[in-house]
C-alpha cells in the first residue's frame, strides 16, 4: 500500500499535533494546580487548615517506614537475581511474580492490607498497616530499578576484585553496591514518589482521621488522602488546590533528584 | 578454620538474599489467596450468574448484581484507550524519530513528570476542569463516563509513550536506513517500517495502559459520578469495579463486605488475562531481538 503525498503531510501533522497535545496537557495540569494552589490561594485560609501539617507528617512516617522495610528486601532480591541466581524456572518465577506485583491495582493492595494487616494481624487502621501494605507495592520498583543499576556495573570491576583475592561477599558489598549506589538511590526515590501519591491502598489501611498519628500503631490520613477527602466531600476547592500543589511540588523535587542521579550514573558509564 | 568461616558467611549471605527474592512470590501468592478466599464464598452465596449479570446493586436490599460495574470498567477503559493510545503512540514517534535531540530529552522528562503525578491529583484536576466543561456542554452535572475516559486517557499517556518510544527506538538502524535509501520518505518509513517492526512493544504498551486504566481508583471516583447503573450516553454517570470497592469498603460488613472482595476477584481476573497477553507480547519482543 502506498501513502499519497497529501496523506504523508497529514500524518506528519497528526504527529506534531499529538506531541503538542501531550505538552499542552502537562503544562495545563501543572499550571492550573500551581497557579490556583500557590499564587491565587488565600494564604490565611490555607494555613488555617489544621489537617495539612499532621497529614504531611503522617505521610513522612509512612514513606520512611515503607522504604525502611522494603529497601533491604528489594535490594537483596535484586542482588540475588543479578549475582547469584542461575537463569531457570525459579528465577523466572521470581521475575514473573515481581512483574505481576507491579500490575496489581492499588485498590487490591488496599483490600489485602485491610484483611491481612488491619484485621488478621490486628494492627487496626494504623500508620504501620499502611506502611506494610505500601511496602509490598513498592517492592517491584525497588527490585527492578536496582537490578538495572547492578547491571550497569562493569564486569571488569567485578573480575578485578575477584582476581585480587576478594571473596564474593566482599566484591558485592564493597565493589558492586557502592558503584551502583546512584542507581539504587533512584529506585528509592521513585518509591518515595509512589508512596506519597498513593491513595486507594492507604485510606483502606491507615485510615482517614485528620490528626497526627501518636505512634505507628495509631491511625492518621496522609496528604493524598486529605486531598481526596477535600475534593470528594466538596469541603473546599481552595484547600484542595493548596494540598494538590504541595503534592506536585514533592513530585517535581523527586523528579529533579532522580534526574540528577541519572546523570551521575551516565557519567560513570561513560567514564568506564 | 578461617576459610571455613568465610564459606559459612558466603552461604548465609546467599540464603538471606534468596529469602529476599522469595518475598515477591510470597506476596503475590498471599494477595491472590486472600482475595479469592474472601471473594469466592460470596460469589457462591450470591450465585455466579446473578453476580456477573445481575443489573441491580443494592447491598441493603441484598441485591449484588455487578454487571453495571463490569460494563462501567470496560467502557471507561475503552474510552481511555481511544483517547490516550493514538496521542501516545504518535507522541512516541515524535520523540523517537522527528524531534531534535534536546526537544526529545525535554519530552522524556515531561513524560516522567506526567507518570509521577499522583492519581488523586489527576482526579481533582478533572473535577475542577473537565467535569464543569462537560456540564456546560452536555448538562447533567458533568460527572460522567466521558470525564472518566478523558482523565484516564491522560493518565495512560506516559505508559504508552515511554514503552512505545523504547520499542520504536530499538528498531535496528539498518531497517531505517534501508527504507530511506530506497527512496522512501521519513513518514513512509515511520508508518510502514518502524511501527510494524515495533508492533509487539507497542501492543505491550497498550496492554499495560489497559491495566493501568482498569485498575485506577481515586481519579475515577472523583469524576465518574459513581451511580451503579449502566450508562446510555457519554455524559451519564458511571461506576467502575474499583470505585465499587473503594466507595463501600469503609462501612461494609458481612456478605456486603465479601461481595466487595468478590468485586476484587473479578478485577483480578481481568488483570490476570492482561498479564497473560503481556507475557505473550514480551516474548515476541524478545524473539525480535
Automatic annotation (TrEMBL), chain A:
Primary location group: membrane
InterPro entries documented for this protein: MetI-like, Phosphate_PstA
Record domain ABC transmembrane type-1: where: 56-258
Cross-referenced CDD domains: TM_PBP2 (cd06261)
Family as reported in the entry's similarity comment: Belongs to the binding-protein-dependent transport system permease family. CysTW subfamily.
PANTHER family: PHOSPHATE TRANSPORT SYSTEM PERMEASE PROTEIN PSTA-RELATED
Transmembrane intervals: 12-39, 59-81, 101-119, 125-143, 175-196, 239-261
UniProtKB keywords: Cell membrane, Membrane, Transmembrane, Transmembrane helix, Transport
Domain of life, per lineage: Bacteria
Gene (UniProt): pstA
Full protein name: Phosphate transport system permease protein PstA
Keyword Transmembrane set for record: yes
Membrane topology field: Multi-pass membrane protein
Subcellular location: Cell membrane
UniProtKB/TrEMBL annotation, chain B:
InterPro entries: MetI-like, Phosphate_PstC, Phosphate_Transport_Permease
Subcellular localization: Cell membrane
Chain ranges passing through the membrane: 16-36, 74-98, 110-138, 144-163, 202-224, 259-279
Membrane topology: Multi-pass membrane protein
The keyword Cytoplasm is assigned to this record: no
UniProt keyword terms in alphabetical order: Cell membrane, Membrane, Phosphate transport, Transmembrane, Transmembrane helix, Transport
Pfam family, one: BPD_transp_1
Sequence ranges assigned to domain ABC transmembrane type-1 in this UniProt record: 70-278
Superkingdom of the organism of origin: Bacteria
Function: Part of the binding-protein-dependent transport system for phosphate; probably responsible for the translocation of the substrate across the membrane.
PANTHER family cross-referenced by the UniProt entry: PHOSPHATE TRANSPORT SYSTEM PERMEASE PROTEIN PST, PHOSPHATE TRANSPORT SYSTEM PERMEASE PROTEIN PSTC
Similarity field: Belongs to the binding-protein-dependent transport system permease family. CysTW subfamily.
NCBIfam families: phosphate_pstC
Annotated protein name in UniProt: Phosphate transport system permease protein
Species this protein is from: Tissierella simiarum
Gene designation: pstC
Amino acid at each position: 500500500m502506498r501513502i499519497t503525498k497529501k496523506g504523508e503531510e497529514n500524518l506528519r501533522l497528526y504527529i506534531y499535533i499529538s506531541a503538542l497535545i501531550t505538552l499542552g496537557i502537562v503544562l495545563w495540569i501543572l499550571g492550573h494546580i500551581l497557579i490556583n494552589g500557590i499564587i491565587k490561594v488565600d494564604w490565611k485560609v490555607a494555613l488555617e487548615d489544621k489537617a495539612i501539617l499532621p497529614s504531611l507528617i503522617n505521610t513522612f512516617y509512612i514513606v520512611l517506614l515503607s522504604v525502611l522495610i522494603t529497601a533491604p528486601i528489594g535490594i537483596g532480591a535484586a542482588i540475588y537475581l543479578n549475582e547469584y541466581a542461575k537463569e531457570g524456572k525459579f528465577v523466572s518465577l521470581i521475575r514473573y511474580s515481581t512483574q505481576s506485583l507491579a500490575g496489581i491495582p492499588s485498590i487490591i493492595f488496599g483490600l489485602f492490607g485491610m484483611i491481612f494487616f488491619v484485621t488478621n494481624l490486628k494492627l487496626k487502621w494504623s500508620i504501620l498497616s499502611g506502611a506494610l501494605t505500601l511496602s509490598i507495592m513498592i517492592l517491584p520498583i525497588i527490585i527492578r530499578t536496582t537490578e538495572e543499576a547492578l547491571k550497569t556495573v562493569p564486569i571488569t570491576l567485578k573480575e578485578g576484585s575477584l582476581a585480587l583475592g576478594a571473596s564474593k561477599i566482599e566484591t558485592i558489598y564493597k565493589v558492586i553496591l557502592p558503584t551502583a549506589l546512584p542507581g539504587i538511590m533512584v529506585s528509592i526515590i521513585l518509591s518515595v514518589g509512589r508512596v506519597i501519591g498513593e491513595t486507594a491502598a492507604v485510606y483502606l489501611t491507615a485510615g482517614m482521621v485528620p490528626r497526627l498519628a501518636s505512634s505507628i500503631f495509631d491511625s492518621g490520613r496522609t496528604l493524598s488522602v486529605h486531598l481526596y477527602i477535600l475534593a470528594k466531600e466538596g469541603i473546599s476547592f481552595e484547600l484542595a488546590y493548596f494540598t494538590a500543589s504541595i503534592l506536585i511540588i514533592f513530585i517535581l523535587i523527586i523528579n529533579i533528584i532522580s534526574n540528577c542521579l541519572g546523570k551521575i550514573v551516565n557519567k560513570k558509564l561513560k567514564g568506564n | 578454620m578461617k576459610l571455613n568461616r568465610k564459606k559459612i558467611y558466603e552461604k548465609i549471605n546467599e540464603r538471606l538474599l534468596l529469602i529476599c527474592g522469595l518475598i515477591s512470590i510470597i506476596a503475590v501468592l498471599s494477595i491472590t489467596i486472600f482475595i479469592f478466599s474472601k471473594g469466592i464464598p460470596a460469589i457462591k452465596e450470591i450465585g455466579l450468574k446473578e453476580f456477573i449479570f445481575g443489573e441491580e446493586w443494592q447491598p441493603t436490599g441484598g441485591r449484588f448484581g455487578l454487571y453495571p460495574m463490569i460494563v462501567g470498567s470496560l467502557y471507561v477503559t475503552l474510552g481511555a484507550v481511544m483517547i490516550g493510545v493514538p496521542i501516545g503512540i504518535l507522541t512516541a514517534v515524535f520523540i523517537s524519530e522527528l524531534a531534535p535531540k534536546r526537544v526529545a530529552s525535554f519530552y522524556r522528562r515531561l513524560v516522567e513528570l506526567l507518570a509521577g503525578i499522583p492519581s488523586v491529583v489527576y482526579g481533582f484536576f478533572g473535577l475542577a476542569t473537565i467535569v464543569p466543561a462537560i456540564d456546560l456542554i452536555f448538562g447533567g452535572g458533568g460527572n460522567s463516563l466521558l470525564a472518566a475516559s478523558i482523565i484516564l486517557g491522560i493518565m495512560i499517556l506516559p505508559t504508552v509513550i515511554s514503552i512505545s518510544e523504547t520499542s520504536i527506538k530499538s528498531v535496528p538502524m539498518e531497517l531505517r536506513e534501508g527504507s530511506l535509501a530506497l527512496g522512501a520518505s521519513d513518514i513512509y518509513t515511520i508508518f510502514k517500517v518502524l511501527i510494524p517492526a515495533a508492533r509487539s512493544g507497542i501492543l505491550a504498551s497498550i496492554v499495560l495502559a489497559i491495566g493501568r486504566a482498569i485498575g485506577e481508583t481515586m481519579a475515577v471516583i472523583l469524576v465518574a459520578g459513581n451511580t451503579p447503573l449502566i450508562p446510555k450516553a457519554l455524559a451519564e454517570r458511571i461506576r467502575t469495579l474499583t470505585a465499587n470497592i473503594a466507595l463501600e469498603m469503609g462501612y461494609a460488613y458481612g456478605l456486603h463486605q465479601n461481595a466487595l472482595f468478590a468485586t476484587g476477584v473479578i478485577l483480578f481476573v481481568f488483570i490476570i488475562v492482561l498479564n497473560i497477553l503481556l507475557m505473550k507480547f514480551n516474548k515476541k519482543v524478545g524473539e525480535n531481538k
